[in-house]
Amino acid sequence: MAMIAVEDLSVAFGSGESLVHAVDGVSFQVEAGDTFGLVGESGCGKSTILRALSGLNDHWHGQIIIDGARLEPKRQRSFFKKVQMVFQDPYGSLHPRHTVNTTLMEPIAIHGLDRADQRIAQVLEQVGLGPAFRFRYPHQLSGGQRQRVAIARALILEPKILLLDEPTSALDVSVQAEILNLLADIRSQARLTCILVSHDLAVIAHMCHRLAVMNQGKIYEELTVDDLAGNRPRHSYTRQLLQASLGYDRRLAAAATLADDGLDSGAA
Amino acid sequence: MVAAAEAPLLTVEDLSIRFLTPHRIVEAVRGVSFTLGREKVGIVGESGSGKSMTGRAILKLTPANAMVEARALRFQELDIMAATERDMLRVRGRRISLILQDPKFSLDPIMRVGDQIAEAIPPDKREGKARTRECVLEMLAAVRIHNPRRVYDLYPHEISGGMGQRVMIAMMLMPEPAMLIADKPTSALDVTVRMQVLAIIDDLVTRRGLGLVFISHDLNLVATFCDRVLIMYAGRIVESCKASELRHARHAYTQGLLASLPRIAERRPRLAVLNRDPAWLTE
Protein backbone atom coordinates (compact mmCIF):
# COMPACT_ATOMS: atom_id res chain seq x y z
CA MET A 1 0.00 0.00 0.00
CA ALA A 2 1.17 3.49 -0.76
CA MET A 3 2.66 5.49 2.10
CA ILE A 4 1.10 8.70 0.77
CA ALA A 5 -2.06 8.73 -1.33
CA VAL A 6 -3.52 12.02 -2.44
CA GLU A 7 -6.87 11.90 -4.18
CA ASP A 8 -8.52 14.85 -5.92
CA LEU A 9 -6.86 17.45 -3.67
CA SER A 10 -7.98 21.04 -4.16
CA VAL A 11 -6.94 24.22 -2.41
CA ALA A 12 -8.55 27.55 -3.21
CA PHE A 13 -7.77 31.02 -1.91
CA GLY A 14 -10.03 34.06 -1.89
CA SER A 15 -13.70 34.11 -2.74
CA GLY A 16 -16.11 35.36 -5.36
CA GLU A 17 -14.40 36.88 -8.35
CA SER A 18 -10.95 36.73 -6.81
CA LEU A 19 -11.17 32.99 -6.14
CA VAL A 20 -7.91 31.29 -7.13
CA HIS A 21 -7.64 27.53 -7.48
CA ALA A 22 -4.04 27.11 -6.34
CA VAL A 23 -4.36 23.33 -6.42
CA ASP A 24 -7.04 21.93 -8.66
CA GLY A 25 -7.96 18.24 -8.35
CA VAL A 26 -4.52 16.73 -7.92
CA SER A 27 -4.00 12.98 -7.34
CA PHE A 28 -0.80 11.01 -6.84
CA GLN A 29 0.65 8.19 -4.77
CA VAL A 30 4.06 7.68 -3.19
CA GLU A 31 5.24 4.18 -2.22
CA ALA A 32 7.09 3.66 1.08
CA GLY A 33 10.78 4.45 0.69
CA ASP A 34 10.28 6.34 -2.58
CA THR A 35 11.10 9.96 -3.29
CA PHE A 36 8.49 11.72 -5.37
CA GLY A 37 9.26 14.98 -7.15
CA LEU A 38 6.89 17.88 -7.73
CA VAL A 39 8.28 20.26 -10.31
CA GLY A 40 6.88 23.42 -11.85
CA GLU A 41 7.25 27.16 -12.05
CA SER A 42 6.41 29.61 -9.29
CA GLY A 43 2.72 29.75 -8.53
CA CYS A 44 1.94 26.32 -9.98
CA GLY A 45 0.72 25.03 -6.61
CA LYS A 46 3.56 22.66 -5.74
CA SER A 47 4.35 24.23 -2.35
CA THR A 48 0.64 24.57 -1.58
CA ILE A 49 0.31 20.78 -1.88
CA LEU A 50 3.11 20.35 0.69
CA ARG A 51 1.46 22.83 3.02
CA ALA A 52 -1.84 20.96 2.83
CA LEU A 53 -0.07 17.64 3.44
CA SER A 54 1.92 18.93 6.38
CA GLY A 55 -1.06 20.53 8.09
CA LEU A 56 0.08 24.13 7.62
CA ASN A 57 -3.01 24.80 5.57
CA ASP A 58 -6.29 23.24 6.65
CA HIS A 59 -8.49 24.72 3.93
CA TRP A 60 -8.33 21.88 1.46
CA HIS A 61 -10.76 19.44 -0.11
CA GLY A 62 -10.27 15.90 -1.28
CA GLN A 63 -8.62 12.97 0.39
CA ILE A 64 -5.17 12.51 1.86
CA ILE A 65 -4.20 9.09 3.20
CA ILE A 66 -0.89 8.79 5.01
CA ASP A 67 0.36 5.41 6.19
CA GLY A 68 -3.14 3.97 5.92
CA ALA A 69 -4.87 6.68 7.94
CA ARG A 70 -7.18 9.20 6.36
CA LEU A 71 -6.30 12.75 7.40
CA GLU A 72 -8.67 15.39 8.68
CA PRO A 73 -7.79 19.03 8.07
CA LYS A 74 -6.91 19.33 11.79
CA ARG A 75 -4.04 17.08 12.79
CA GLN A 76 -3.24 15.06 15.90
CA ARG A 77 0.09 15.56 17.58
CA SER A 78 1.15 12.06 16.58
CA PHE A 79 0.87 13.12 12.94
CA PHE A 80 3.66 15.64 13.31
CA LYS A 81 5.93 13.00 14.76
CA LYS A 82 5.43 11.00 11.60
CA VAL A 83 5.60 13.81 9.03
CA GLN A 84 8.19 16.58 9.09
CA MET A 85 9.07 19.36 6.70
CA VAL A 86 12.21 21.24 5.61
CA PHE A 87 11.70 24.70 4.20
CA GLN A 88 13.36 26.65 1.42
CA ASP A 89 14.91 29.55 3.24
CA PRO A 90 17.38 28.58 5.95
CA TYR A 91 17.64 32.26 6.90
CA GLY A 92 13.94 32.62 7.68
CA SER A 93 13.08 29.20 9.05
CA LEU A 94 15.30 29.27 12.15
CA HIS A 95 14.57 31.50 15.14
CA PRO A 96 17.38 34.08 15.12
CA ARG A 97 17.58 34.27 18.93
CA HIS A 98 17.47 30.54 19.61
CA THR A 99 20.64 28.49 19.72
CA VAL A 100 20.78 25.27 17.74
CA ASN A 101 20.22 23.48 21.05
CA THR A 102 17.05 25.44 21.85
CA THR A 103 15.73 24.89 18.33
CA LEU A 104 16.26 21.15 18.64
CA MET A 105 14.87 20.97 22.21
CA GLU A 106 11.52 22.34 21.10
CA PRO A 107 10.19 19.29 19.21
CA ILE A 108 11.52 17.05 22.00
CA ALA A 109 9.61 19.02 24.64
CA ILE A 110 6.40 19.19 22.58
CA HIS A 111 6.34 15.45 22.06
CA GLY A 112 7.60 14.63 25.56
CA LEU A 113 10.51 12.52 24.39
CA ASP A 114 13.18 11.16 26.75
CA ARG A 115 17.00 11.22 26.38
CA ALA A 116 16.95 14.77 24.99
CA ASP A 117 20.68 15.24 25.36
CA GLN A 118 21.53 12.05 23.57
CA ARG A 119 19.03 12.69 20.78
CA ILE A 120 20.45 16.14 20.04
CA ALA A 121 24.04 14.92 19.98
CA GLN A 122 23.06 12.06 17.72
CA VAL A 123 21.07 14.11 15.24
CA LEU A 124 23.80 16.76 14.97
CA GLU A 125 26.25 13.98 14.15
CA GLN A 126 23.82 12.62 11.59
CA VAL A 127 23.60 15.90 9.68
CA GLY A 128 27.37 16.34 9.77
CA LEU A 129 27.58 19.26 12.19
CA GLY A 130 29.09 17.74 15.31
CA PRO A 131 28.86 18.89 18.95
CA ALA A 132 30.72 22.18 18.36
CA PHE A 133 27.63 23.65 16.70
CA ARG A 134 25.22 22.85 19.49
CA PHE A 135 25.28 26.19 21.27
CA ARG A 136 25.67 28.49 18.28
CA TYR A 137 23.13 30.97 16.98
CA PRO A 138 21.89 30.99 13.36
CA HIS A 139 23.87 34.14 12.52
CA GLN A 140 27.07 32.25 13.35
CA LEU A 141 26.26 29.64 10.70
CA SER A 142 26.55 29.63 6.90
CA GLY A 143 23.50 28.98 4.73
CA GLY A 144 24.44 25.33 4.28
CA GLN A 145 24.97 24.83 8.01
CA ARG A 146 21.60 26.43 8.76
CA GLN A 147 19.92 24.08 6.33
CA ARG A 148 21.62 21.19 8.16
CA VAL A 149 20.10 22.46 11.42
CA ALA A 150 16.67 22.63 9.76
CA ILE A 151 17.13 19.05 8.58
CA ALA A 152 18.23 18.01 12.09
CA ARG A 153 15.09 19.62 13.55
CA ALA A 154 12.96 17.55 11.16
CA LEU A 155 14.88 14.33 11.85
CA ILE A 156 14.96 14.53 15.64
CA LEU A 157 11.41 13.16 15.85
CA GLU A 158 12.44 10.20 13.71
CA PRO A 159 9.69 10.78 11.15
CA LYS A 160 8.66 8.34 8.45
CA ILE A 161 7.94 11.02 5.91
CA LEU A 162 10.02 14.06 4.99
CA LEU A 163 8.50 16.90 2.98
CA LEU A 164 11.19 19.00 1.28
CA ASP A 165 10.19 22.40 -0.08
CA GLU A 166 12.99 23.68 -2.35
CA PRO A 167 15.60 22.69 0.25
CA THR A 168 18.59 23.88 -1.80
CA SER A 169 17.35 26.73 -3.94
CA ALA A 170 18.75 29.39 -1.59
CA LEU A 171 22.20 27.77 -1.61
CA ASP A 172 25.26 27.94 -3.87
CA VAL A 173 25.75 24.94 -6.15
CA SER A 174 28.70 23.52 -4.23
CA VAL A 175 26.69 23.68 -0.98
CA GLN A 176 23.65 22.30 -2.77
CA ALA A 177 25.70 19.20 -3.66
CA GLU A 178 26.57 18.67 0.02
CA ILE A 179 22.96 19.01 1.18
CA LEU A 180 21.61 16.74 -1.57
CA ASN A 181 24.21 14.10 -0.65
CA LEU A 182 23.22 14.42 3.00
CA LEU A 183 19.52 14.03 2.19
CA ALA A 184 20.27 10.96 0.07
CA ASP A 185 22.24 9.38 2.94
CA ILE A 186 19.58 10.10 5.55
CA ARG A 187 16.86 8.83 3.27
CA SER A 188 18.49 5.43 2.91
CA GLN A 189 19.57 5.17 6.58
CA ALA A 190 16.14 6.02 8.00
CA ARG A 191 14.12 4.55 5.10
CA LEU A 192 12.25 7.78 4.63
CA THR A 193 9.49 8.42 2.18
CA CYS A 194 10.00 11.88 0.69
CA ILE A 195 8.27 14.44 -1.43
CA LEU A 196 10.68 16.93 -2.96
CA VAL A 197 9.37 20.18 -4.39
CA SER A 198 11.68 22.09 -6.72
CA HIS A 199 11.69 24.31 -9.77
CA ASP A 200 14.98 22.71 -10.83
CA LEU A 201 14.49 19.63 -13.00
CA ALA A 202 18.11 18.54 -12.53
CA VAL A 203 17.72 18.46 -8.73
CA ILE A 204 14.48 16.47 -9.06
CA ALA A 205 16.10 14.06 -11.53
CA HIS A 206 19.02 13.53 -9.17
CA MET A 207 16.93 12.81 -6.07
CA CYS A 208 13.68 11.21 -7.24
CA HIS A 209 12.32 8.04 -8.76
CA ARG A 210 9.14 9.51 -10.14
CA LEU A 211 7.94 13.06 -10.63
CA ALA A 212 4.87 15.07 -11.47
CA VAL A 213 5.04 18.18 -13.63
CA MET A 214 2.65 20.85 -12.44
CA ASN A 215 1.29 24.01 -13.97
CA GLN A 216 -1.61 26.23 -12.90
CA GLY A 217 -2.66 23.97 -10.04
CA LYS A 218 -2.86 20.81 -12.13
CA ILE A 219 -0.57 17.86 -12.71
CA TYR A 220 0.17 17.91 -16.44
CA GLU A 221 2.09 14.69 -16.49
CA GLU A 222 3.55 12.06 -14.19
CA LEU A 223 6.66 10.27 -15.37
CA THR A 224 9.69 8.33 -14.19
CA VAL A 225 13.09 9.96 -14.03
CA ASP A 226 14.30 7.42 -16.61
CA ASP A 227 11.69 8.75 -19.04
CA LEU A 228 12.86 12.26 -18.30
CA ALA A 229 16.55 11.40 -18.74
CA GLY A 230 15.77 9.49 -21.93
CA ASN A 231 14.05 12.62 -23.24
CA ARG A 232 10.66 10.92 -23.44
CA PRO A 233 8.23 13.40 -21.87
CA ARG A 234 4.76 13.29 -23.42
CA HIS A 235 3.62 16.79 -22.57
CA SER A 236 4.98 19.79 -24.46
CA TYR A 237 5.27 21.78 -21.22
CA THR A 238 7.62 19.16 -19.76
CA ARG A 239 9.72 19.33 -22.93
CA GLN A 240 9.86 23.10 -22.55
CA LEU A 241 11.07 22.81 -18.94
CA LEU A 242 13.61 20.18 -19.97
CA GLN A 243 14.91 22.34 -22.78
CA ALA A 244 15.19 25.41 -20.56
CA SER A 245 17.12 23.48 -17.91
CA LEU A 246 19.88 22.77 -20.43
CA GLY A 247 20.71 26.45 -20.80
CA TYR A 248 20.19 29.10 -23.45
CA ASP A 249 19.64 28.11 -27.06
CA ARG A 250 19.56 31.02 -29.45
CA ARG A 251 17.56 29.27 -32.16
CA LEU A 252 15.00 27.86 -29.74
CA ALA A 253 14.60 31.11 -27.88
CA ALA A 254 14.16 33.04 -31.11
CA ALA A 255 11.62 30.52 -32.36
CA ALA A 256 9.66 30.39 -29.11
CA THR A 257 6.52 32.43 -29.30
CA LEU A 258 6.16 34.59 -26.25
CA ALA A 259 3.83 33.15 -23.70
CA ASP A 260 1.03 35.60 -23.34
CA ASP A 261 1.10 36.98 -19.84
CA GLY A 262 -2.64 37.31 -19.67
CA LEU A 263 -2.91 41.07 -19.91
CA ASP A 264 -0.19 41.23 -22.52
CA SER A 265 -2.19 39.49 -25.21
CA GLY A 266 -5.09 41.86 -25.02
CA ALA A 267 -7.36 38.91 -25.65
CA ALA A 268 -7.29 37.80 -22.03
CA MET B 1 34.96 39.13 -33.98
CA VAL B 2 35.02 42.85 -34.63
CA ALA B 3 35.69 43.61 -31.00
CA ALA B 4 39.34 42.64 -31.16
CA ALA B 5 40.29 45.39 -33.58
CA GLU B 6 38.42 48.20 -31.80
CA ALA B 7 39.44 49.84 -28.58
CA PRO B 8 37.56 48.17 -25.71
CA LEU B 9 34.47 49.84 -24.27
CA LEU B 10 35.60 49.11 -20.78
CA THR B 11 39.01 48.51 -19.27
CA VAL B 12 39.39 47.26 -15.71
CA GLU B 13 42.92 46.88 -14.40
CA ASP B 14 43.82 45.64 -10.96
CA LEU B 15 40.54 46.59 -9.30
CA SER B 16 40.37 46.14 -5.54
CA ILE B 17 37.46 46.82 -3.21
CA ARG B 18 37.92 46.72 0.54
CA PHE B 19 35.51 47.26 3.39
CA LEU B 20 36.57 48.57 6.76
CA THR B 21 34.59 47.00 9.57
CA PRO B 22 35.20 47.64 13.27
CA HIS B 23 36.99 44.31 13.58
CA ARG B 24 38.83 43.77 10.34
CA ILE B 25 39.31 44.67 6.69
CA VAL B 26 37.22 42.63 4.27
CA GLU B 27 38.69 42.30 0.80
CA ALA B 28 35.68 41.84 -1.46
CA VAL B 29 37.54 42.23 -4.77
CA ARG B 30 41.27 41.65 -5.10
CA GLY B 31 43.09 42.69 -8.27
CA VAL B 32 40.49 42.04 -10.95
CA SER B 33 41.44 42.89 -14.56
CA PHE B 34 39.45 42.48 -17.77
CA THR B 35 38.32 44.33 -20.86
CA LEU B 36 34.94 44.41 -22.56
CA GLY B 37 34.33 44.98 -26.25
CA ARG B 38 31.06 44.74 -28.14
CA GLU B 39 30.45 41.25 -26.75
CA LYS B 40 28.75 39.31 -23.96
CA VAL B 41 31.06 38.65 -21.03
CA GLY B 42 29.76 36.53 -18.17
CA ILE B 43 31.05 36.81 -14.60
CA VAL B 44 30.25 33.71 -12.56
CA GLY B 45 31.03 32.77 -9.01
CA GLU B 46 29.34 31.83 -5.76
CA SER B 47 27.78 34.30 -3.35
CA GLY B 48 30.43 36.54 -1.86
CA SER B 49 32.89 36.04 -4.72
CA GLY B 50 32.82 39.76 -5.52
CA LYS B 51 31.06 39.56 -8.88
CA SER B 52 28.23 41.97 -8.08
CA MET B 53 30.59 44.38 -6.33
CA THR B 54 32.73 44.47 -9.49
CA GLY B 55 29.63 45.45 -11.48
CA ARG B 56 28.79 48.18 -8.98
CA ALA B 57 32.31 49.61 -9.06
CA ILE B 58 32.00 50.22 -12.81
CA LEU B 59 29.09 52.58 -12.06
CA LYS B 60 30.65 53.96 -8.89
CA LEU B 61 27.73 52.55 -6.93
CA THR B 62 29.70 50.79 -4.21
CA PRO B 63 28.57 51.46 -0.63
CA ALA B 64 29.99 54.53 1.09
CA ASN B 65 32.30 52.52 3.34
CA ALA B 66 33.93 50.71 0.40
CA MET B 67 37.48 51.63 -0.55
CA VAL B 68 37.91 51.22 -4.29
CA GLU B 69 41.34 51.19 -5.90
CA ALA B 70 42.39 50.43 -9.46
CA ARG B 71 45.34 51.00 -11.77
CA ALA B 72 42.80 51.78 -14.46
CA LEU B 73 39.02 51.83 -14.65
CA ARG B 74 38.05 53.32 -17.97
CA PHE B 75 34.79 53.47 -19.91
CA GLN B 76 35.40 54.73 -23.44
CA GLU B 77 37.15 58.08 -22.88
CA LEU B 78 36.08 58.45 -19.25
CA ASP B 79 38.39 57.73 -16.33
CA ILE B 80 35.86 56.36 -13.83
CA MET B 81 38.34 56.48 -10.93
CA ALA B 82 38.76 60.24 -11.38
CA ALA B 83 35.14 60.94 -12.34
CA THR B 84 33.04 63.12 -10.07
CA GLU B 85 29.50 62.29 -8.97
CA ARG B 86 28.34 64.83 -11.56
CA ASP B 87 30.23 63.04 -14.33
CA MET B 88 28.75 59.73 -13.23
CA LEU B 89 25.19 61.12 -13.42
CA ARG B 90 25.79 61.60 -17.13
CA VAL B 91 26.96 57.99 -17.46
CA ARG B 92 24.62 56.00 -15.26
CA GLY B 93 21.50 54.92 -17.07
CA ARG B 94 22.50 56.91 -20.15
CA ARG B 95 25.68 55.34 -21.43
CA ILE B 96 25.84 52.36 -19.08
CA SER B 97 22.60 50.74 -17.96
CA LEU B 98 22.11 48.37 -15.06
CA ILE B 99 19.48 45.63 -15.10
CA LEU B 100 18.80 44.19 -11.67
CA GLN B 101 17.38 40.95 -10.41
CA ASP B 102 13.87 41.79 -9.37
CA PRO B 103 11.59 44.07 -11.41
CA LYS B 104 9.13 44.24 -8.51
CA PHE B 105 11.54 46.33 -6.47
CA SER B 106 12.97 48.35 -9.33
CA LEU B 107 9.78 49.85 -10.77
CA ASP B 108 7.84 52.73 -9.20
CA PRO B 109 4.60 51.14 -7.96
CA ILE B 110 2.45 54.27 -8.40
CA MET B 111 3.51 55.31 -11.87
CA ARG B 112 2.20 53.95 -15.16
CA VAL B 113 4.67 51.67 -16.91
CA GLY B 114 4.78 53.78 -20.08
CA ASP B 115 5.45 56.99 -18.18
CA GLN B 116 8.34 55.33 -16.34
CA ILE B 117 9.92 54.32 -19.62
CA ALA B 118 9.38 57.84 -21.02
CA GLU B 119 11.12 59.28 -17.97
CA ALA B 120 14.27 57.42 -18.98
CA ILE B 121 14.67 59.53 -22.12
CA PRO B 122 17.37 62.13 -21.47
CA PRO B 123 15.93 65.69 -21.42
CA ASP B 124 17.96 66.80 -24.44
CA LYS B 125 16.47 64.04 -26.56
CA ARG B 126 12.81 64.73 -25.81
CA GLU B 127 10.67 65.97 -28.69
CA GLY B 128 7.16 66.62 -27.44
CA LYS B 129 4.55 64.42 -25.83
CA ALA B 130 3.20 62.68 -28.91
CA ARG B 131 6.66 61.75 -30.18
CA THR B 132 7.73 60.53 -26.72
CA ARG B 133 4.72 58.26 -26.53
CA GLU B 134 5.55 56.87 -29.94
CA CYS B 135 9.15 56.19 -28.88
CA VAL B 136 7.96 54.32 -25.79
CA LEU B 137 5.49 52.25 -27.80
CA GLU B 138 8.25 51.35 -30.26
CA MET B 139 10.53 50.33 -27.41
CA LEU B 140 7.80 48.20 -25.80
CA ALA B 141 7.38 46.44 -29.12
CA ALA B 142 11.16 45.95 -29.33
CA VAL B 143 11.11 44.02 -26.05
CA ARG B 144 8.34 41.90 -27.57
CA ILE B 145 5.34 43.20 -25.73
CA HIS B 146 2.43 42.33 -28.00
CA ASN B 147 0.05 45.08 -27.13
CA PRO B 148 2.16 48.14 -26.27
CA ARG B 149 -0.79 50.56 -26.22
CA ARG B 150 -2.51 48.56 -23.53
CA VAL B 151 0.62 47.91 -21.47
CA TYR B 152 1.63 51.60 -21.59
CA ASP B 153 -1.18 52.52 -19.20
CA LEU B 154 -0.77 49.66 -16.72
CA TYR B 155 0.73 49.93 -13.25
CA PRO B 156 3.56 47.60 -12.16
CA HIS B 157 1.25 45.47 -9.99
CA GLU B 158 -0.89 44.72 -13.02
CA ILE B 159 1.89 43.05 -14.98
CA SER B 160 3.66 39.71 -14.50
CA GLY B 161 7.29 39.30 -13.40
CA GLY B 162 8.43 38.44 -16.91
CA MET B 163 6.71 41.47 -18.38
CA GLY B 164 8.09 43.64 -15.57
CA GLN B 165 11.60 42.57 -16.47
CA ARG B 166 10.95 43.40 -20.14
CA VAL B 167 9.66 46.83 -19.09
CA MET B 168 12.87 47.31 -17.09
CA ILE B 169 14.93 46.40 -20.14
CA ALA B 170 12.90 48.81 -22.27
CA MET B 171 13.62 51.53 -19.73
CA MET B 172 17.33 50.75 -19.69
CA LEU B 173 17.58 50.87 -23.47
CA MET B 174 15.68 54.11 -23.94
CA PRO B 175 18.76 56.37 -23.65
CA GLU B 176 20.64 54.10 -26.11
CA PRO B 177 23.49 53.07 -23.83
CA ALA B 178 26.77 51.66 -25.15
CA MET B 179 27.01 49.12 -22.38
CA LEU B 180 24.72 47.02 -20.22
CA ILE B 181 25.44 45.48 -16.84
CA ALA B 182 22.95 42.74 -16.06
CA ASP B 183 23.16 41.51 -12.47
CA LYS B 184 21.33 38.16 -12.34
CA PRO B 185 18.64 39.62 -14.62
CA THR B 186 16.61 36.44 -14.89
CA SER B 187 16.97 34.65 -11.58
CA ALA B 188 13.60 35.91 -10.32
CA LEU B 189 11.91 34.61 -13.47
CA ASP B 190 10.50 31.23 -14.35
CA VAL B 191 12.56 29.14 -16.74
CA THR B 192 10.31 29.51 -19.74
CA VAL B 193 10.04 33.29 -19.35
CA ARG B 194 13.79 33.42 -18.70
CA MET B 195 14.53 32.16 -22.21
CA GLN B 196 12.41 34.89 -23.76
CA VAL B 197 14.02 37.67 -21.74
CA LEU B 198 17.48 36.35 -22.62
CA ALA B 199 16.56 36.21 -26.29
CA ILE B 200 15.57 39.87 -26.11
CA ILE B 201 18.84 40.89 -24.44
CA ASP B 202 20.79 38.74 -26.90
CA ASP B 203 19.06 40.34 -29.90
CA LEU B 204 19.53 43.87 -28.65
CA VAL B 205 23.18 43.36 -27.75
CA THR B 206 23.93 41.82 -31.14
CA ARG B 207 21.89 44.19 -33.25
CA ARG B 208 22.83 47.44 -31.50
CA GLY B 209 26.43 46.42 -30.91
CA LEU B 210 26.36 46.87 -27.13
CA GLY B 211 28.81 45.50 -24.62
CA LEU B 212 27.24 43.29 -21.96
CA VAL B 213 28.54 42.30 -18.53
CA PHE B 214 26.35 39.40 -17.43
CA ILE B 215 26.66 38.57 -13.73
CA SER B 216 25.28 35.17 -12.75
CA HIS B 217 25.73 32.11 -10.58
CA ASP B 218 24.27 29.80 -13.20
CA LEU B 219 27.13 28.04 -14.99
CA ASN B 220 24.95 26.36 -17.62
CA LEU B 221 23.31 29.60 -18.50
CA VAL B 222 26.52 31.60 -18.84
CA ALA B 223 28.19 28.83 -20.85
CA THR B 224 25.37 28.86 -23.37
CA PHE B 225 24.53 32.57 -23.42
CA CYS B 226 27.81 34.52 -23.28
CA ASP B 227 30.84 34.83 -25.56
CA ARG B 228 33.44 34.81 -22.81
CA VAL B 229 33.33 33.82 -19.14
CA LEU B 230 35.30 35.07 -16.14
CA ILE B 231 35.18 32.81 -13.10
CA MET B 232 35.56 34.58 -9.76
CA TYR B 233 36.52 33.03 -6.46
CA ALA B 234 37.08 34.96 -3.22
CA GLY B 235 37.43 38.30 -4.99
CA ARG B 236 39.73 37.19 -7.79
CA ILE B 237 39.34 36.00 -11.36
CA VAL B 238 40.73 32.48 -11.19
CA GLU B 239 40.05 31.61 -14.80
CA SER B 240 38.75 33.13 -18.00
CA CYS B 241 37.80 31.25 -21.14
CA LYS B 242 35.52 31.18 -24.15
CA ALA B 243 32.01 30.34 -22.97
CA SER B 244 31.78 27.41 -25.35
CA GLU B 245 34.89 25.92 -23.74
CA LEU B 246 33.74 26.24 -20.11
CA ARG B 247 33.21 22.48 -19.97
CA HIS B 248 36.94 22.01 -20.46
CA ALA B 249 37.86 24.53 -17.77
CA ARG B 250 41.33 24.03 -16.33
CA HIS B 251 41.11 25.53 -12.86
CA ALA B 252 40.25 23.06 -10.09
CA TYR B 253 37.61 25.45 -8.70
CA THR B 254 35.76 25.70 -12.01
CA GLN B 255 36.01 21.96 -12.50
CA GLY B 256 34.71 21.43 -8.96
CA LEU B 257 31.72 23.70 -9.53
CA LEU B 258 30.83 21.95 -12.77
CA ALA B 259 31.14 18.54 -11.15
CA SER B 260 28.85 19.51 -8.27
CA LEU B 261 25.93 20.26 -10.60
CA PRO B 262 23.25 17.58 -10.81
CA ARG B 263 22.60 16.58 -14.43
CA ILE B 264 19.49 15.04 -15.90
CA ALA B 265 21.24 12.98 -18.57
CA GLU B 266 24.02 11.45 -16.47
CA ARG B 267 22.80 10.40 -13.06
CA ARG B 268 25.30 9.64 -10.33
CA PRO B 269 24.61 8.14 -6.91
CA ARG B 270 26.47 11.03 -5.25
CA LEU B 271 27.36 14.52 -6.36
CA ALA B 272 30.98 15.60 -6.26
CA VAL B 273 31.64 17.93 -3.34
CA LEU B 274 33.94 20.90 -3.73
CA ASN B 275 37.07 20.68 -1.60
CA ARG B 276 38.30 24.23 -1.29
CA ASP B 277 42.04 24.44 -1.69
CA PRO B 278 43.59 27.33 0.30
CA ALA B 279 45.97 27.83 -2.64
CA TRP B 280 43.04 29.12 -4.76
CA LEU B 281 43.06 32.27 -2.65
CA THR B 282 46.48 33.29 -3.86
CA GLU B 283 47.65 31.36 -6.92
Q: What kind of oligomer do you see?
A: heterodimer
> What gyration radius of chain A follows from the Cα positions, in whole Å?
20 Å
The CATH topology of one domain in chain B corresponds to: Rossmann fold
Structural class of chain A: alpha/beta
What characteristic shape of chain A results from the CA principal axes? globular
Strand residue percentage of chain A: 15-25%
CA-based gyration radius of chain B? 20 Å
Strand order of the largest sheet of chain B: 7-8-9-3-10-11
Share of helical residues of chain B: 25-40%
Question: What is the architecture of chain A at the second tier of CATH?
Answer: 3-Layer(aba) Sandwich
Which features does this protein show?
heterodimer, A: 268 residues, alpha/beta, Rossmann fold, 6-stranded mixed β-sheet, 10 helices, 10 strands, B: 283 residues, 5-stranded antiparallel β-sheet, 31% helix
Quick synopsis:
Chain A is built from ten helices and ten strands.
